[in-house]
């Protein structure tokens, strides 16, 4: 497969590695170029699915020598490939990464990167505003970046400014910023590639869907850990509505990943999902069943944490499946009866069985992290298997 090359540059600490991992997802391969142990070394990332190659440089900082070494390494790599008759040796797109939490340094960072990449005068630029956790500031930051580029000769090369959250970011105990902007970056990059290097729309759509799944599953893991911490309290879990904020934050965040916007229809759809997993009904059954199991001897706080984390994990994995069906056009936000039945199936006796397995696998005083990992591992694998069965059943019905 013929691929274009994307050069990723940015100051040290801007979050390039996190961004690249989010774009590549689970299917990533890394190869180095240059002498081992030197600052010239590049990290070159490829994936069978990704329609372009990613070339990561060392981070820029106040050291002009380090900056020159980074760009020299890219030039040398390009010349080496050309010498070996590798046709795809050109830099086709540049990602300028600027830190959204360091707004006063935006203009200075852009100046540094424009100077460092002066040899690629006509290459399209996509400005990536990393760490865009504050929704109100995203538009303001994007405007600042556009303004900064307009004052410079290469401003016309800027094709898009995309604020991103590469990985879910915990804001407090019950809220976090969901991953955003990654699939938009993939699509925008493919769009500005030269003809002959662009991937087909079906390939891009498939890759975007895979990335959405990966980000959503990661978010469920974070929510599960949060629920385990919140749930490990010395009060009757079944009588407390303490998980509601975690559940709402989780469902809203997954909805954003799949592009589900706020409306009366989406609110009804999401409320239906949450109602099925209401703690007062599910937890009581789970706790009473687990306590009756011979040989179960774990602390009450651990038991509460397991129940809380399991409910949030099942709720999140079910939401991923539901929102993905809407995203793919197989279901609509009006299909509340369908989503209710689907979610009820995930909280059936099989749910209790999985919770039991988690409990039996844990040491008596397991940490919250150990609890969350066990839950995510079991529920994630089970839900993915269930999804395959449900997909097959729907295809057969069609």
Give an account of the 3D structure.
- The protein is of the alpha/beta class and 398 residues long.
- The chain folds into two domains: 4-199, Rossmann fold; 213-397, no CATH class.
- It has helices spanning 16-24, 64-83, 106-116, 135-150, 182-192, 201-231, 244-257, 264-276, 279-291, 300-327, 336-346, 349-361, 368-397; strands spanning 4-10, 29-33, 42-46, 52-56, 93-99, 125-130, 158-163, 169-170, 176-177.
- Helix 5 (182-192) packs antiparallel against helix 6, helix 6 (201-231) packs antiparallel against helix 10 (300-327) and helix 10 packs across helix 12 (349-361).
CATH class of the largest domain: Alpha Beta
Quickly count the helices: 13
CATH superfamily of the largest domain: P-loop containing nucleotide triphosphate hydrolases
Please tell me how large the radius of gyration is: 24 Å
Q: Please state the second-level CATH architecture of the largest domain.
A: 3-Layer(aba) Sandwich
Instruction: Give the total of beta strands.
Output: 9
Task: List the uncertain runs.
Answer: 35-40, 383-398
Q: How do the SSEs run, as a string of H and E?
A: EHEEEHEHEHEEEHHHHHHHHH
CATH topology (level 3) name of the largest domain: Rossmann fold
- The neighbouring-strand order within the major sheet is 2-3-4-1-5-6-7
Q: Output mean pLDDT.
A: 78
Q: Proportion of β residues?
A: 5-15%
Distance between the termini: 33 Å
Q: Which outline best applies? A: elongated
As an assembly, this protein is single chain
What does the largest sheet look like?
Answer: 7 strands, mixed
Question: Share of helix among residues?
Answer: 55-70%
Alpha-beta content class:
alpha/beta
Number of domains: 2
